[in-house]
Amino acid sequence: MVRKLLVTGGAGFIGSNFVHHVLAHTDDHVTVLDKLTYAGNLASLDGLPEDRFRFVEGDIADQGLVDTLFGEVDAVVHYAAESHNDNSLNDPRPFLDTNIIGTYTLLEAARKHDRRFHHISTDEVYGDLELDDPARFTENTPYNPSSPYSSTKAGSDLLVRAWVRSFGVIATISNCSNNYGPYQHVEKFIPRQITNVIRGIRPKLYGAGENVRDWIHADDHSSAVLTILNNGVIGETYLIGADGEKNNKDVVELILTTMGQPRDAYDHVTDRPGHDLRYAIDSTKLRTELGWTPKYQNFEQGITNTITWYQNNEPWWAPTKDGVEAFYATRGQ
Ligand code: NAD
Ligand code: TDX
Questions:
Q1: For residues 50 and 52, what is the distance between their CA atoms, to the nearest angstrom?
Q2: How far, in Å, are 48, 140, 191 from residue 252 at the CA level?
């Protein structure tokens, strides 16, 4: 049977990578529901097979539209979110509207139509770890979010858990670490620094740059989500990560040297308020219970490929670059 999927937020970074992955590796048909906020870009969905792909512009908090679309599909993968911590420190309201009310609206439709629902979330719901702590996040780590962004993602996860338990919604949740790869908005750390170097602007490191992120290629995130959608146990949470811990200073230096610049040609700028120190994922459950393994294990090669993508796709990111840098300038970043 050909499955019909609804993918929310499919014009964003990770959602668009998932749509490309699904259409390349399955016979599924995909409908994308996306509001095309500043973060959505239809060009990220260019070249997809027209007979298996449809785009609908709209808000996940639009109850009538969501109700209609849920009636037309077999399963829903929910990526749509306000996703940037720095924006959430500037104006939290859209994070509540989309991440909380939007997710609530989708859950009510999943309940009404009895549809399989997979909720995409982040490791940031667990707060942060000390640099010298051998521990990593597991599915049993207590929630302790730091920012307006991560607290609204934590809230959305808890709504999903409650709708599973109280109403029998057939849902799973995944919490993934930091993604990199093509189609990532230039507001985010890695694309910001790559496009800065292309533009002759020095990369900007928040504070001392000792903060650690656990990097995973977006295509590995997609294969993990597809694995959970197909074989995950209803009501369960799965952590997704690829053992990619790096501190920000090392990542900036890698980008600079890969792009032929001096290793120290970056600026230290104002730190992010409440900046989480370290994230680290233990993905043993996903690997042992569902047999998933990541493919992109060589971070240096992954960064080289990502740099090449931004060099070859300037029309995709150029229209947003100046506005992003103007925003950061107002924050001393
Ligand atoms: P993104 O900001 O690149 O994309 C978000 C997409 O959602 C955009 O296309 C936007 O137009 C759309 N959207 C926003 N509000 C909407 C609304 N109300 N209705 C419909 N569409 C709306 O984000 P991303 O980095 O691709 O993140 C996608 C998901 O993955 C999010 O749920 C995020 O929390 C999660 N996640 C991200 C990362 C990461 O490293 N970026 C890591 C783990 C989890
Ligand atoms: O210019 C910068 N300089 C800098 O040092 C930017 C934009 C960021 N940083 C630092 C802050 C973080 O320590 O780099 C690190 C990564 O920053 P972001 O790309 O903003 O990501 P992060 O805050 O870690 O959150 C990301 O991963 C988890 C995604 O944006 C979230 O959506 C996801 O949930």
A1: 5
A2: 33, 32, 11
Find out whether 40 and 8 touch, Cβ atoms under 8 Å. Answer: no
* Atom 9 in ligand 2: residue holding the nearest Cα: 189
For the chain, report the end-to-end CA distance as a whole number of angstroms. Answer: 51
What length is written for the chain? 333
pLDDT in tens, 46-105: 999 999 999 999 999 999 999 999 999 999 999 999 999 999 999 999 999 999 999 999
User: Crossing angle, helix 314-330 and helix 189-199, to 10 degrees?
Assistant: 100
Query: Sheet holding 29-34: strands in order across?
Result: 53-57, 29-34, 4-8, 75-78, 116-122, 171-176, 237-240
CA neighbor of 21 nearest in space, from 37, 5, 35, 33: 5
Ligand 2 binding pocket (C-beta < 6 A) is 83-85, 122, 124, 178, 188-189, 192, 204-206, 211, 213, 248, 272
pLDDT single digits (tens) 181-215: 999 999 999 999 999 999 999 999 999 999 999 99
- Superfamily (CATH H level) for 4-179+216-240: NAD(P)-binding Rossmann-like Domain (3.40.50.720)
Quick one: which ligand is closest to 87's CA? 2
